[in-house]
Amino acid sequence: MRLIAGYVVLVAALVVLTVLSLGLGAGSLADPELRSTLLSLRASRLACALLVGAALAVAGVVVQGLFQNPLADPSVLGTSSGAALGGKIALVVTELVLVGRGAHGIPPDVVLPVGCMAGALLSLALVLGFARRSSDMLSLILTGFLLSSLFLALGSLVTSMAQDRWELGRAVVAFSLGDLTGAGPQHVALAAPLVTVGIAASWFWARPLDLLLCGDEEAASLGVNVDQVRLCCVLWVAALTAGAVAIGGNIGFVGLLVPHALRPLLGVDHRRLVPVAALGGAVFVGACDLVVRVLPARGVVPLGVITGLVGAPAFLALLVRGQKRGSFA
Asked: Is the separation of the CB atoms in 178 and 248 below 8 Å?
């Protein structure tokens, strides 16, 4: 009953969000010459926001199941920072190396998802390697924070190197802050396959993820190939994070808040959590992007700022509650 109610509420919220997103924003739909263009731009931006939210929320569900910790999240474990670093390197290499040597015709939108995927895989591989050596979840999350700091520092280095060219520097900075201002149909076409495959695979392998919650030894005794499941989870989370970061930049805390808000209502069954989290994440990021578009600011407020303003206090509240219970899980 709760599952059906959750679907009804989220679908209704998605419908309302769609109507508001298409109707609100810069420009007036009353002008017949601009109406079709404005609707196309707003629809593309809304689609990108929904893809980002769904991808990050489902990635959060998978990461939390993989590490058996509800405080785990792609951004906390450094995955988002790794994907952002890979995307920055891809942008710089495309502009300074390939284009500089005359390799024209290679748009950054094509190499950006590849760079994000490589960065996300590297980050998760490092975290997963540490997880095999230590079962201490607190140490694991601290390792994720350290990796995130390292990737952020390296990303800052890449950003400073990109400032020699104004357009490249501006693109890298906008990518770092997390924004959907330049999102278009090509971004949807490139990211949709990664996000769709990642969500479908996460739902299909929900049963092994459920068994992993009992512990590696218990799951292995029940016939689960733990190493195979871990490897597949790394690939899915990398695909989801890469798709989200490639079109929206570094947008944090979605994968932490959405699953954590839904789990008390739906339980730990991943077959329930994955599709509902996809809807919940899409609504959350879409609503945050709508706030960005209607804020009475002279400049554009990055989407990552809004999600961070909501997510950081909520994450702190989760840590305080975990300390009171004597556990961070």
From this structure: yes
Percent of the chain with pLDDT over 70: 84
Tokens of residue 116, six digits? 């994000």
pLDDT at 329: 47
What does the block give as tokens for 156? 């800052």
Neighbouring C-alpha atoms within 13 Å toward the C-beta of 162: 26
Is residue 199 within a helix (H) or strand (E), and if so which, with residue range?
helix 185-204
Query: In this structure, which amino acid lies at residue 194?
Result: L
Instruction: DSSP letter for 135, please.
Output: -
Q: Which of 246, 237, 273 is nearest to 86 (CA)?
A: 246
Q: Are 65 and 213 in contact (CB under 8 A)?
A: yes
Domains of the chain: 2-325 (1.10.3470.10)
Specify the pLDDT at position 103.
Answer: 47
Show the tokens assigned to 62. Answer: 């998978």
pTM for the model stands at 0.82
Q: For 9-39, how does the pLDDT look when each residue is reduced to its tens digit (9 = 90+)?
A: 888 988 998 888 887 766 666 667 777 877 8
Contact by Cβ (8 Å): 46, 14: no
Report residue 217 as tokens.
């030894």
Q: Which is nearest to 62 in space by CA: 53, 72, 52?
A: 72
